[in-house]
Amino acid sequence: NPESSPEHAVAQQKYGIQGYPTVAFLSAEGDLISLNSGYQEPAPFAELMAETLKGEEKIKQLQVDIKKTPNEPKTNAELALIYVKRGNLETGQPFVDKALKLDPDNKTGLLPEIYLNLGLHYGMNSGGAENTGEHVQKAEMYFKTVVQKYPQSASYELGQLYLGITYAIQEKYDLAIATLEKLSNAKNPAVKQRAAEILDSVKHAK
To answer: Measured between alpha carbons, how far is 27 from 186 in angstroms, rounded to an integer?
Structure first.
């Protein structure tokens, strides 16, 4: 808990911890698997740990599978998604590149989510980065890919929302407004509400 242990502030910043108590599950390599804020009773917490271990077993199996069939599109896409979600592009980028090459028609169904999480990676990591502008532009590119190429995917509405936010960050207010207004009929109520809130603030900022 960085509030009482200042020496843990580095971990707080690295993993994006915003509230306490928070339990962060990390891989053996130090990649963030998940953040879990607030107190949890023993039973649900045990279930959460079991699910985390299950996920680790899956990645181990995928690593075995990729050695046997290195050109299998779904295995590459699944590994790409896991590493991108964990923010480990050093390991994940080769899988991303291979997944895009092997599955240009998105037969695995995983490419929209990969693009969405690439956008989130650069969007979330842009603050405090030396090349903030470059990071935000990359985030915009990935979110735009989700919106333009995969309008029927489960990632579409989130991609539209984050694209609008990315435009707003860059003070491209007209684009932000036009993008966010398209979510007035969003199927996801949380996305719809968040888009309306941001749209209101963007209109005031403009």
So the answer is: 35
Express each pLDDT in 50-70 by its tens digit: 998 888 899 999 999 999 999
Beta bridge partners of 35: 24
Instruction: Output the pTM of the full model.
Output: 0.84
DSSP string, the chain: -TTT-GGGHHHHHHHT--SSSEEEEE-TTS-EEEEEES---HHHHHHHHHHHHHHHHHHHHHHHHHHH-TT-HHHHHHHHHHHHHTT-HHHHHHHHHHHHHH-TT-TTS-HHHHHHHHHHHHHHH-TT-TTHHHHHHHHHHHHHHHHHH-TTSTTHHHHHHHHHHHHHHTT-HHHHHHHHHGGGG-SSHHHHHHHHHHHHHHHHH-
Buried-state track 179-199, b at ≥16 Cβ within 10 A, e below 16: bbeebeebeeeebbebbeebb
Residue matched to tokens 């949380």 = 190
Spatial separation of the C-alpha atoms in residues 113 and 156, rounded to whole Å: 9
Spans of the chain below 70 pLDDT: 1-4, 6, 124-132
Measured between its terminal Cα atoms, the distance across the chain in Å is 39
